[in-house]
Amino acid sequence: MKALVTGATGFVGYHVVRFLLGRGVRVSVLVRKGSDRKALDSLGVEIVTGDVRDYDSVDRALDGCSQLYHLAADYRLWVPDPATMYEINVQGTKNVMEAALRRGVEKVVYTSTVGALTAGSDGRPANEEMPVSIEEMVGHYKRSKFIAEKEVRGAAEKGLPVVIVNPSTPVGPMDRRPTPTGKMIVDFLNGRMPAYLDTGLNFVDVEDVAEGHWLAAERGRIGERYILGNRNLTLKDFFEILGRTVGRSAPKVRLPYLPVLIAAHFDEAISKIIPGRCPAIPLTGVRMARKFMFFDVSKALRELNIPQSPVERAIARAAVWFTENGYVKAVRG
């Protein structure tokens, strides 16, 4: 069996490729020209140069593939021009689904995000079935993924055997760019996390997310979506686990929301004026923190039997990887 993976240079995409290879699947990856391929070169996969925004390159990459894992996405909390994000996340997804339909791919797994779902009220976990509208989407990333999910469901209605997975907050090694969550860990390890906002997330081992993709292809119901997550933690609890892991104190100061929101507005305004500057406090991230992103993963447990590896171990492995790979200047007690 041969599978095409898009977004393989990303954090989750890399782990999906590794898991598939471990299952004996022949893997080809669609990679943009100029992308960093070092990690993929070590895996020995077939690399096809192309772009999800180019339908023809996607179609060529699917030649001989019976499975498709579409993970390619522009994931940033702040973008100076959101047009590219919509081109990749929406039009790119439309191209991939149409090419898979034309090629008669036997199973497609589309990687969305829990950000495209509603957040539970009062910290209560949300699930896949709760109604949600685009008005609830905070920021261009969430909006673009929400629209992309509609494209995927439309392809399912046309007969494409596609399953949607919604990873929560993956943690683990090989977060090379890193993701916003990885950056939180790096900032903490570098002593740049003196305080926290009162919010919460659902954390999951990135390797469990990778296996969840495979299980969605094997057991998922067509047109359904599954939350790939594990443990709901407040940000305070997350930093306490991280602190115990590396032997240093977690931040004890809880920041009030309004001053941080005001600071984020100013920070983003400055970034719009200075070319190449990214805000240190992304406004979208602060707005997202207003709600606890807690989720109920029982559907994926029941129907896919997704693994639930200890989140503490994933956090520890991430900390070790960042430290060993030069992201951390010093770990001070």
Provide tags for this entry.
333 residues, alpha/beta, Rossmann fold, three-stranded mixed β-sheet, 12 helices
Structure description:
The strands form three sheets. A seven-stranded parallel β-sheet has the order 3-2-1-4-5-6-10, sandwiched between helices. A three-stranded mixed β-sheet has the order 7-9-11. The chain has a two-stranded parallel sheet with strand order 8-12. 43% of the residues lie in helices and 16% in strands. The chain is globular and about 55 Å long. The chain has a domain at 2-173 and 203-229 and 295-309: 3-Layer(aba) Sandwich (Rossmann fold). Helix 1 (11-22) packs across helix 7, helix 4 (83-103) runs parallel beside helix 5 and helix 6 packs across helix 12 (311-324). With 333 residues, it is α/β, with parallel strands linked by helices. The protein starts with a strand and ends in a 9-residue tail after the last helix.
Low-confidence stretches: none
Mean pLDDT score, rounded?
A: 92
N/C terminus separation: 50 Å
CATH topology name of the domain at 2-173 and 203-229 and 295-309, in short, is Rossmann fold
Total number of β-strand segments?
12
CATH superfamily of the domain at 2-173 and 203-229 and 295-309: NAD(P)-binding Rossmann-like Domain
Give Rg in angstroms: 19 Å
What is the makeup of the main sheet?
7 strands, parallel
Give a short overview:
The protein has a domain at 2-173 and 203-229 and 295-309: NAD(P)-binding Rossmann-like Domain (Rossmann fold, 3-Layer(aba) Sandwich). It has 333 residues and is of the alpha/beta class.
